[in-house]
Backbone:
């Protein structure tokens, strides 16, 4: 076998492979013998079909399959062993392949076009610093969060007169029809221009109104009348509603009962401690967003400061081909810049992993998947051996799911790999901490 790499430029090359009988004949002969033992042909006992007949019937297809398999392995192995920065897939010279005379040739020549990324290196000391934002919860954010919590853990109260947002209980009657029911009207489901007929009313008051105008949405009308949605469509015209009771949600009071509901019994004992805990929670929630922004900034810094040339024409043609008509050349051009960013970022991450000897083991992938299972199903794990076995079984089944050809394992592996590369990069570049308010952080994220 003869393999030659010919580089036309830093980003374009061709790989030429020549095969002789010594390369493929032993394996082809072996498979022909296997076929001879298994093939069943009328007039011959199993295993006694003449070799010449087996050769005539199956020789060419076995030869083609063996050479194609050999080429695939050879190309992949050559790229791996020579550490070629190949982007896209090697593209075979189909014209040359189609010209092969499989019946008469014994030596075969093949050619593949390769798209290469230019040589590059990463010097962490030359990279600019990146900022890690420490979100500080101000009084406005704390007050807003507490107000939301008070609404979420609201109390029920009875009102003297109807306010917007109240729920009204009473008797609904059709003026010129038989319908009558005890029901509840949530005013927040009413049409805005109909609320004025009810707001300000007291217990015992009777309101006459047009039902479909007050509840134009059939689902809301069904909820208000207590009938099925399809039946509510037929309930129209004038109705009366006599108010029996008025209930509303009142924000929870800032007391021990409320503190215990939100944070757990005995976690805090006064409003000052509660506000401190809320500030910590806000900081923690935004901390995850801050970590994600830091990751994006690190990736952008790596791309912006690592010059890499790509074989643009090759990649655009390759994208058109592998997507099989899903995109036009114009659409490829529109999305090409984003595509090249992802290609360059992956090349950079691979280079960092190689320099830092970063590897991902199966146990690491399994550990991440176990955590995902615990979070998704609410499993505690810990010292419960049976529970740990259950978590482990679910995690392994997820990773080894054959229905998606191992994609779950690949996706999780890539996630662990990326995380390890980013964490290593954080130790090599300068990360500057900066305190920032929630509003400033929100504005920063929007601008990004």
Residues:
């Amino acid at each position: 076998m003869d393999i030659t790499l010919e580089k036309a430029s830093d980003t374009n090359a061709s790989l030429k492979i020549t095969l002789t009988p010594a390369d493929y004949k032993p394996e082809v002969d072996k498979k022909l013998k296997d076929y001879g033992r298994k093939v069943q042909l009328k007039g011959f006992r199993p295993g006694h079909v003449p070799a010449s007949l087996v050769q005539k019937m199956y020789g060419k297809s076995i030869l083609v399959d063996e050479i194609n398999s050999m080429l695939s392995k050879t190309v992949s192995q050559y790229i791996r062993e020579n550490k070629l920065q190949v982007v896209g897939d090697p593209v075979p010279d189909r014209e040359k392949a189609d010209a092969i005379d499989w019946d008469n040739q014994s030596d075969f020549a093949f050619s593949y076009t390769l798209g290469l990324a230019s040589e590059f290196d990463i010097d962490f000391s030359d990279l600019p610093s990146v900022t890690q934002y420490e979100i500080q919860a101000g009084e406005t954010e704390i007050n807003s969060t507490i107000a939301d919590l008070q609404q979420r853990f609201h109390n029920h109260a009875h009102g003297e007169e109807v306010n917007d947002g109240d729920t009204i209980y009473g008797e609904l009657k059709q003026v010129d029809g038989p319908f009558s029911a005890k029901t509840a009207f949530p005013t927040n489901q009413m049409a805005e221009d109909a609320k004025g007929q009810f707001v300000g009313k007291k217990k015992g008051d009777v309101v006459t109104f047009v039902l479909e105008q007050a509840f134009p949405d059939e689902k809301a009308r069904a909820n208000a009348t207590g009938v099925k949605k399809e039946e509510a469509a037929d309930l129209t015209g004038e109705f009366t509603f006599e108010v029996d009771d008025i209930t509303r949600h009142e924000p929870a009071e800032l007391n021990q009962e409320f503190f215990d509901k939100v944070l757990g019994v005995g976690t805090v004992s006064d409003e000052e401690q509660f506000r401190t805990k809320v500030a910590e929670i806000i900081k923690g929630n935004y901390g995850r967003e801050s970590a994600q922004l830091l990751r994006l900034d690190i990736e952008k810094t790596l791309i912006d400061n690592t010059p890499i040339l790509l074989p643009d024409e090759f990649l655009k043609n390759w994208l058109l081909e592998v997507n099989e008509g899903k995109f036009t050349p114009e659409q490829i051009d529109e999305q090409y810049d984003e595509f090249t960013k992802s290609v360059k970022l992956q090349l950079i991450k691979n280079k960092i992993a190689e320099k830092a000897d970063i590897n991902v083991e199966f146990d690491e992938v399994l550990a991440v998947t176990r955590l995902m299972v615990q979070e998704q199903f609410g499993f505690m794990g810990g010292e419960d051996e049976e529970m740990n076995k259950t978590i482990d079984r679910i995690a392994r089944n997820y990773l080894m799911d054959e229905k998606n050809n191992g994609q779950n394992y690949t996706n999780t592996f890539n996630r662990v790999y990326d995380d390890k590369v980013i964490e290593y990069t954080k130790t090599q570049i300068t990360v500057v901490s900066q305190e920032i308010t929630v509003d400033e952080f929100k504005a920063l994220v929007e601008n990004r």
Observations:
- The radius of gyration is 36 Å.
